Amino acid sequence: MQIIAQCPKCTYNWLLSEDAADRRIKCPKCRKLFKVPKLSDVPKAVRAIKNAKGTIYVDQNGKTYG
Fold first, then answer.
1. pLDDT at residue 51 in the model
2. Which of 5, 17, 26, 28 is the most buried (most CB within 10 A)?
3. Distance CA 43, CA 40 (A)
4. pLDDT, position 33
5. Where are the domains of the chain?
6. Separation between Cα atoms, residue 4 and residue 18, nearest integer Å
7. CA 58, CA 56: separation in Å to the nearest integer?
8. Neighbours of 59 (CB within 10 A)
9. How many other CB atoms are there within 10 angstroms of residue 51's CB atom?
10. Could you list the pLDDT tens digit for every one of the 66 residues in the chain?
């Protein structure tokens, strides 16, 4: 499973592996450090991702798009 991260400062998007969940990461564009939430913190989003056949975007509030 892949996670689409979005920087809260510059809104740059990129793909991460699920290993990035519950870690602090640095935006490759603006270098802002932010935390990727634990997958268990957004159970509805996790269910949607697991059932998806394509890429799904989950924002920092747990809303899903895709």
1. 73
2. 5
3. 5
4. 93
5. 2-65
6. 10
7. 7
8. 13
9. 8
10. 678 888 889 999 999 988 888 999 999 999 999 988 887 776 776 677 677 766 666 677 777 766
Cβ burial of 49 (10 Å; 0-12, 13-18, 19+) is: buried
* Helix spans in the chain (H): 43-51
- What string of DSSP letters covers 44-55? HHHHHHHH-SS-
Q: Residue holding tokens 């998007």?
A: 13
- Distance of alpha carbon 30 from alpha carbon 53, whole angstroms: 31
Give the integer Cα–Cα distance in Å for 42 and 64: 10
pLDDT at residue 18 in the model: 86
